Amino acid sequence: MTVIEVQNPGLYGQLREPSTDAWLIAVLADFNAFLQDHAANERKASAMAMSMVAHYPDKPDILNAMIDLALEELNHFRQVVRLMQSLGLQPAGDEKDLYVNGMRRHLRDGKEPYLLDRLLSAAVIEARGAERFARIAAANVSPQIQTFYSTLARSESNHHHLFVDLATIYFPKNEVNTRLEEWLDIEKTVLTGLTVRARLH
User: Fold this and answer.
1) Which end of the chain lies in a sparser environment, N or C, as judged by fewer CB atoms within 10 Å?
2) What is d(CA 93, CA 37) in angstroms, rounded to the nearest whole number?
3) In this structure, is residue 200 part of a structural domain?
4) DSSP secondary structure letter of residue 189
5) Do 200 and 132 meet the contact criterion of CB atoms below 8 Å apart?
């Protein structure tokens, strides 16, 4: 699968930098590797949501939202696996996600700062996923891939807003907005420091 024309559908969540054409070309040149990484990311996203369920049982808004999110991300994992199986692929073993690990290094200590950072870092990660899925959907790919990734882009964009909305339940809006701007700067630094590969991040 190769790219002939690359379209940029725009940014999600006011990301500081769009994903590069070089990233999209790398993904389309080795789409099988991308699918394996994508499947792993959906599975880890479901596990992350369940981790928040375990950590915040005293916060009903987070508890209920993360149970729903865990189920949705697990369904996405199943959908990606089915797509892979239709192409004769199987899930690959885990490898370190340098992007997510780089983001986590900026989580602050302390109960309240840590909670706010977990929510807002997740919001920015979801925004990047939405932007990248939309770029794939707008590229020179099959109608099946276009439909699949355009649907996922909308879902990830909704997740971005979900995490921001949850943050505003537990923290003042001006504090949320200020820290979100900082996280957008952090994300740009983390992303631009990574080698371009056929990976979601």
Assistant:
1) N
2) 9
3) no
4) H
5) yes
